[in-house]
Amino acid sequence: MELLCINRAGLSSQCNGNPNPKEKENMHLHLNALSLAVAAVLLGGCATNEEAAAPNMLVAAKVATPPVMDGNASDPAWASAKAVTVQLEDGANFGGTGKSTATLKAVYSGDMVYFLVQYKDPTESVRRGPFQKQADGSWKQLKDPNNKGGDDNVYYEDKWAMIWNIDNSIAAFDKKGCMAACHEGEAGKPYGNKYTSKPGEMGDIWHMKGQRTVPLGNVDDQYLDSTRFDPKTAPGAGRKSDPGGPEYKGFGLVNGKPEFMNKDGKAANAGGTFFMIDGNQVAFDDGRFKAGDEVSSFLIFPLKGDRADIKIAAKWSNGMWTSEVARKLTTGSKFDVQFNNLDAKYGFGFAAFDNAQVRHAYHFDPLYLSFGK
Prior knowledge:
Blueprint: E1 3-7, E2 10-15, H1 21-52, E3 57-62, H2 76-79, E4 84-88, E5 100-109, E6 112-120, E7 131-133, E8 139-141, E9 159-165, H3 173-176, E10 182-184, E11 192-194, E12 203-209, E13 218-224, E14 239-241, E15 248-250, E16 253-254, E17 257-258, E18 260-262, E19 276-277, E20 281-283, E21 294-295, E22 298-300, E23 310-317, E24 320-328, E25 346-353, E26 361-362, E27 367-371
């Protein structure tokens, strides 16, 4: 039988019979070296896999059957996805701590990607600036007495947001996450502004609004650019909305009474809702309400076109928000992140708002989405 012998040069030509003692010694030496080399390759492969499953890497599992969009985390599709835990801090409320813990999962099927977003929130906040009937029969809108402008933390709604780094255009994102676009303490606003550093840097904002977009099944699709704050021309600084809105419109008091009421005639705090779907409003009938009753102060509208790309089913229960989110992998919009390369990773940030207009609890470091095979 012909044998393949190993000599000092490595693999030799064929040889006959048993190797001599010197050849045997060389064989052992080079087998050991080969074993170490193979081990190094294997360990390198393990390191790569560990990197792919790093704590900040959300891996979307490929599934044959997508989740049913009902706000239920027990859907079988989610069982195949590994959760990423995200610690959030430095926000308002959250039981006085300003902190929460979120878990994220992702799956994809066909031309769609799905996310399961869950985070702890001790209260469901629904009283977004309602009108309240007073003991003397008058009406007033409830507002945070400490709100100095766009900073209500008492009468608001629950929200969460993601910011995606479109085409890796935000240069500092890999180091700072969405903090690369945060500018606190600027004149003109009590909390600060959001904008990117220079033209061409863009982020895709996914903004869940518990009272304004969730009831109609949408996440508000917005975007971020480098526009600086100006109180007249750019009050939102770099934060803008995709075409296809608005998502809501507020209304005021007319002759001292709310302009509209919901057609069911119910007080929001007595079986009604703190939002009013456009088309359900009717002329206000003050005689239907008693002191202490509250009613909505805004209409909500279905989003359309580019702004309606992201669908959601969300529920709050037992101190936890659960959102199921769906979007096409590619939308074709310049304002959206395009998941068009399943071998790439996509940077994003996540934040949650507990009854807060702007003071969100956030994660300091960037997160990434990748796609499993």
